[in-house]
Amino acid sequence: MWADVLARFEKKAPASVMAKLALEQAIAPEWVDQVFEEHRQRQYSRELLFSTIIKLMSLVSLGLKPSLHAAARQLEDLPVSLAALYDKISRTEPALLRALVTGCAQRLAPTIKELGCTAMLPGWQVRVVDGNHSPKAALLGFTTAVLAYNVLAVLKRSVEQAHRETQPEGWEASTYHLAVQVRSGYEGLQIALPSEYLPVIPLEKLAQRLLELAKNIQPKQVAKSPRGPKVPKPKTWVQGSAVHAHVSTDRVIKAAKTKRP
């Protein structure tokens, strides 16, 4: 039964399945909690695991939930109150986030290499802003946005590789349209197919599985629309005296009063 449900989603909503599989590997809960234990300074877990926070924030970053508040309210097994959740987020340590971004990139490196991806900005270094000068909650949001974009970039490359032989040279998939497709079926996938029935794909086989699923995506639905040349707008001329003329609000109000019958 569950195999049939999964097969329908793989055919009708492949981008959602791809995102789910990629997220499970990019930010696997056990690995995220291990990173937390290795790099935390003053924070501790108790009831709320750090992996739960990353899961919620990632749903928001991918546009699958409108806000952290909405994501937390819909999580059935949230072990703490919303106030405790926000307090934990506000105490997030920058060193921990740095390790999370670096580690996620390393986990996806074999998949990226197999898909033929290269660094988008070779020679650039990503630096985490000191949390003392930037709200830590915003810093966590930025970090999960980077993680989410990494996943979308892998999906983008998978689609391009899967259809490169049938599409014209230079054809590109749009991360925006891919994100739309992910959102359209992700929540249904979560409801219809419990996580324990979704097969876990080993990291070394992730690229091949993504390529198989990407073939079910219609290229025209995710194609990047190239922009045409920018049309110059004619400059309008306004007399200088009109631009710099001072208009008294008091005079306008008084004039309006005098005109009343």
In words, what does this structure look like?
The chain is mainly alpha-helical and 261 residues long. 28% of the residues are buried. It contains 13 helices and no strands. About 6% of the residues have low confidence. It starts with a helix and ends with a helix. The chain has one domain. The longest helix has 28 residues. Helix 1 packs across helix 2 and helix 2 crosses helix 9. The protein is extended. It is 61% helix and 0% strand.
What's the layout of helices and strands?
Blueprint: H1 2-12, H2 14-26, H3 29-39, H4 50-61, H5 68-73, H6 82-90, H7 94-114, H8 136-163, H9 175-192, H10 203-214, H11 219-222, H12 240-243, H13 249-259
Give a summary of the structure in a few sentences.
This protein has 261 residues and is an all-alpha fold. Helix content is 61%, strand content 0%.
* N- to C-terminal distance: 79 Å
Question: Which stretches are poorly predicted, pLDDT < 50 over at least 5 residues?
Answer: 119-133
The amount of beta strand, in percent, is under 5%
Q: How many beta-strand segments?
A: 0
Contiguous helical run count: 13
Main sheet, how many strands, which sense, barrel? none
Overall structural class, as computed from helix and strand content, comes to: mainly alpha
Helix percentage range:
55-70%
Overall body shape: extended
Provide the succession of SSEs.
Answer: HHHHHHHHHHHHH
Mean pLDDT: 85
Number of domains: 1
What's the gyration radius in Å? 25 Å
